[in-house]
Amino acid sequence: MLLWIIYDISKDKPRKKMADACEQYGLYRVQYSAFLGDVNKNQMDELQLKAEELINEKTDAVYLFPMCEEDFKKVALVGQEFDRKLIADQLSTKMV
Predict the structure, then answer these.
(1) In what order do the strands lie in the sheet with 28-31?
(2) What is the DSSP letter of 58?
(3) Which residues contact residue 21 at a Cβ distance below 8 angstroms, ignoring those fewer than 6 apart?
(4) Distance CA 47, CA 26 (A)
(5) Which residues contact residue 94 at a Cβ distance below 8 angstroms, ignoring those fewer than 6 apart?
(6) Lower Cβ count inside 10 Å, N or C end of the chain?
(7) pLDDT (tens digit, 9 = 90+) per residue, 21-69?
(8) What's phi and psi for 57, nearest 5 deg?
(9) pTM confidence score
(10) What residue ranges define each of the domains in the chain, with the CATH number in brackets?
(11) Kind and range of the H or E element at 74?
């Protein structure tokens, strides 16, 4: 499944650890605090647990949005776009 992770983490160290975790799971950075990639349900759960360990729930937020490929094709964007082809190519190689 496609997964968007978007976060607002106030402190540098946990914010860096969250970014590193996203990259370790093969997610691509599409904005400074936004990642997108293809993961399975277990990986999504692991990333959620990692976020729970890292953040201060009173000041920080991490959003995990699963998305199907059909809905991803409907994404609208105003302004500078992330490399949609890179994500689409990644999906194609995993679905073959």
Answers:
(1) 28-31, 34-38, 2-8, 61-67
(2) T
(3) 47, 50, 51
(4) 12
(5) 38
(6) C
(7) 999 999 999 889 999 999 999 999 999 999 999 999 999 999 999 998 8
(8) -65, -15
(9) 0.79
(10) 2-95 (3.30.70.240)
(11) none
